[in-house]
Amino acid sequence: MGLKNYVANLKKNFEKGAKYEKWMPVFESFETFLFVLGETAPKKGAHIRDAIDLKRTMSVVIIALLPALIFGMWNLGYQHYLAQGMSDASFWNEFNHGLWKTIPLIIVAYAAGLGTEFLFVYIKQKEIEEGFLVSGLLIPMIVPVDVPLWMVAVSSILAVVFGKEVFGGTGMNVFNPALLTRAILFFAYPTKMSGTIVWTSDFDEIMANGKLADGITGATPLGDAAAAIGNLDAYHAKWSAFDAFMGWIPGSVGETSTLMILLGAIIIIATGIGNWKIILSVFLGGAAMGLLLNTFATETNVYMTLPWWEHLVLGGFAFGAVFMATDPVTATQTEKGKWFYGFLIGFIAILVRVLNPAYPEGMMLAILLMNAFAPLIDHYIVKAHISKRLSRVKVKQA
Amino acid sequence: MTKVIKLKKGLDIRLQGKPQPKLASAKLSSGYALKPSDFPGLTPKLSAKVDQDVKAGTELFSDKYNPEVKYTSPVSGKVVAVNRGERRRILEVVIESDGKNESLDFTKANPLQLSKEDITKNLLESGNWTFIRQRPYAIVANPQHSPKSIFVSTFDSAPLAPDYQFILQDKMDTFQTGINAISKLTSGKTYLGLDAKITNNIFDRTENAEKVYFDGPHPAGAVGVQIHHLDAVNKGEVVWYVNVQDVVNIGHLFLTGKVNFERTIAICGSEVKDPQYHKCIIGAGLKELLHEKTLGENNRIISGNVLSGSKVSADNYLGFYDSQLTVIPEGNEPELFGWATPGFGKFSMSRSFLSWLTPNKEYRLDSNLRGGHRPFVVTGQYEKVVPMDILPVHLLKAIIIEDIDLMEQLGIYEIAEEELALCEVVCTSKTPVQAIVRKGIELMIKEFN
User: Fold this and answer.
1) Which positions in chain A touch B328 (Cβ < 8 Å)?
2) Does residue A270 form part of some domain?
3) Which residues of chain B lie closer than 8 angstroms to A273, CB-CB?
């Protein structure tokens, strides 16, 4: 095992008293990526351990993200050529376009976020915690493709520092770091995060060159629905729920295809990594609010009449339900609480989406809001648990 | 009508080296030791001296704060050493056996005709009292308490656990006498937990105890789980429990007036040649027990099971309450990209390794931690393996922040290490669950004594 010896020799430079002593945690962080260390169980306790660790958990989530990511790359190219009226561009042309648009986003998000994490490894003198492995891929998937890279870098750094490290690092954060990144982008640079020109790659260039095809506005289905484009028939003439389910609509990089996201959901549920209760209850909550709005729809608000089930395949709803709401750190910790947490996310997301004209999409805000309320939900679940335990004593005395 | 309690949560881990139902005639060890560390919370007061001749039942040390609880020699012979550790803490009292195994004489009587006080006295004098432990805390029972009920679990569901149907098949009369004795110690019920999966259970005919059948994966056989479902411990309440083999030893005391610290153990695990049962005496030296029985060099010897036993060196001694010795490979070798392999041979409760395709595979697992220690991240894992109405993560967090009230409210009285051992096994963050549980128990003892 040449590599093992090489690493062991290298490690000597970082040991106590050696020249690079202070860089030991940084070294160890890299070492744990290469090896599962030879650390053994303590003298007393469980002597055998599940092979799973955080790296494995994160890897599974990344694998589950791949279908949506790869589809998203293709869709970027497809929308790009479609905007120019070239609906017959070849698959590889489309995919290539998306690939080279997405890779810089991924690299920048990882470099900025992981760079910050390593800075904190050095400051805290503690081995790296793997949280950002998933966040780094989530960030490029939930932003519009043409958002400037430096903005992604700045907001990733801000999210890691103020969303995570100030609370104590992975496992301690209140808000989902990837969503926080998006929220920072959204509120700091709104023109790059919403409207009609940001969703299709190189849209402004296409417009400037006068190549924009007829009937293309650049708006997402949600944008159109929020703008209440006359009536529902006009909306449906332009967008079908099937298109939205399959994902060939404009939107953030990885959010458009409900089908691919559900494929990812199957992966994380089947492996036992993602919590099905949260995913299911988000959809239930969304459906409930959709139904409620349908019931009380007025003629003045056409959006309210959009069939409840169509909401579930639009925008970032499915992506948020499967990959954002299920973040175990920022969700509720109790199993019962997960039902409330998920339901309220879906419920509030559709509420914001339909009734607040300032935000065409409510998923991000709904999840961040429920991130903040998750500890409160847990508090009441634990309270109820405690009083149930106490009632055990009273029943006996009676 | 038989009462069956079905448990869904839990996990059976299939390991190589299951003990075969045969009894080896192993050489009896010459060295024995009684280790205070086998009795959590005990402050021992030494009463034996080095070079003193002892018989089985001679007091070696007692509980400093409860001197009537005596810890007696399991064999006859001579005290050869009192080994001490840091701050002169007694680690073990070592006895060289004379091979005769003579016992002091104690009361021989039918326990059904004795009073509670007489039974207590006989147990205390002989040292057999230490077989009786209490919940909360999983410590030796205090004879001044009155337990609301007494529990005996007749099966062990842990990996590679000994099969008491085999070990005790010829000892059921003695077992019944033991049950008769301990059932007199409570004004409440004496419960017997039985494995619902066994037909023609040898414990089916036990009298003077309420038989309840448990059906489910490990930890269905853990006594704490059975207590939780039958007569859960609330604040201020105490229940007692006895290991099934020790009930037989108690029975022997009343039938013959002599102490018997016999223990049939399973010597098992993937690194054991011909895993099977061995008759020995509590505290037996491992050197002779394991002589020429292990494979390979780089092994971990565990007194007890792989979930909550103690790692011991080859020249150490069998733990007081342990019924198995498990030998597994020591996992101190790093593994290149271990977290990224497909993982056909890797054990995991999740399906994130392809080993889920072979659910019946018996694993040869080593003691590697399989990852670095991290803060709590993944949720819902512990809940899958704890068949009790408690919130494991919240309870552990309450212990970590040393919030006594919260620990009490969340059920610290109901758990000991073994009930939450599986949490430690399946934890993604490699949280030292059992060490936290013991810390919590120690905090509670300190707070209320």
Assistant:
1) 47-48
2) yes
3) 350, 352, 378
Looking at the complex, report in whole angstroms how far the Cα of residue B170 sits from the nearest Cα belonging to chain A: 33
Contact assessment for residue B385 and residue B9, using Cβ atoms and an 8 Å cutoff: yes
Is B434–A43 a contact, with Cβ atoms under 8 angstroms apart? no
Task: Select from B310, B367, B370 the Cβ nearest to the Cβ of A51.
Answer: B370
The tokens 């949600």 sit on which residue? A222
* AA identity, residue B259: V
Q: Which residue has the tokens 């201020």?
A: B236
| Domain extent at residue A249 | 221-231+238-375
Buried b (16+ CB within 10 A) or exposed e, A139-174: bbbbbbbbbeeebbbbbbbbbbeebbbeeebbbbbe
**∠ CA B268-B270-B276 to the nearest 5 degrees?**
25
Which residues of chain B from 112 to 151 reach within 8 Å of chain A, CB to CB? none
- A335 contacts on B by Cβ (under 8 Å): 380, 383
pTM for this structure? 0.92
Identify whether the C-beta of residue A93 lies closer than 8 Å to the C-beta of residue A73: no
Q: Which of B309, B346, B379 sits opposite A333 (nearest CB)?
A: B379
Residue-level pLDDT, tens digit, chain A, 398 residues: 577 788 888 888 888 887 888 888 888 888 877 777 888 899 999 999 999 999 999 999 999 999 999 999 999 999 999 988 887 889 999 999 999 999 999 999 999 999 999 999 888 888 888 888 999 999 999 999 999 999 999 999 999 999 999 998 888 999 999 999 999 999 999 888 888 888 888 888 888 888 888 878 888 888 888 776 567 788 888 888 899 999 999 999 999 999 999 999 999 999 999 999 999 999 999 999 999 999 988 777 778 888 999 999 998 999 999 999 999 999 999 999 999 999 999 999 999 988 887 787 889 999 999 999 999 999 999 999 999 999 987 766 65
In a domain, A328, yes or no: yes
In a domain, A147, yes or no: no
CB contact under 8 A, B368 and A36: yes
Distance CA A296, CA A329 (A): 36
Which amino acid does the sequence have at A111?
A
Residue A296, in any domain of the structure: yes
* Residue A335, SS3 per DSSP: helix
Number of Cβ pairs < 8 A linking chain A and chain B: 219
Name chain B contacts of A57, Cβ cutoff 8 Å: 350, 352, 377-378, 428
Backbone φ/ψ region at A242: left (φ over 0), alpha (ψ -120 to 50), beta: alpha
Under an 8 A CB cutoff, do B410 and A382 touch?
A: yes
Phi, psi values for residue B253, rounded to 5°: -60, -45
Closest by CA position to B281, among listed B25, B28, B54, B26:
B28
Ramachandran sector of residue B133 (left: φ over 0; alpha: ψ -120 to 50; beta: rest):
beta
Query: 153-172 in B: which are within 8 Å (CB) of A?
Result: 159
If we measure between CA atoms, which residue out of A284, A122, A118 comes closest to residue A136? Answer: A118
Whether residue B343 lies within 8 A of chain A, CB to CB, comes out as yes
When divided into structural domains, chain A yields a total of 2
Please report, for chain B, the start and end positions of each structural domain, with discontinuous segments joined by +: 1-331, 382-448
